[in-house]
Design goal:
Largest sheet: none
Number of helices: 2
Strand content: under 5%
Oligomer: single chain
Length: about 55
């Protein structure tokens, strides 16, 4: 597998997991949503860092 393909796989997998997390946010009680929202936003921003660091060129 090419390095670029592996990086793309990391992007896709991480984005999928983040989307599952965003859907899970809807199931939480109102009191916990702001904290989980903050965590999810940070995770969403970390996806490119994770994907690029896993297989640098």
């Amino acid at each position: 597998m090419l390095r670029g393909a592996r990086t793309t796989d990391h992007y896709a997998g991480s984005r999928r997991e983040c989307r599952i997390g965003w859907l899970g946010l809807l199931a939480l009680p109102e009191a916990g949503r702001p904290w989980v929202f903050l965590v999810m936003a940070l995770l969403e921003m970390a996806v490119p860092l994770y994907a690029e660091r896993a297989h640098p060129y």
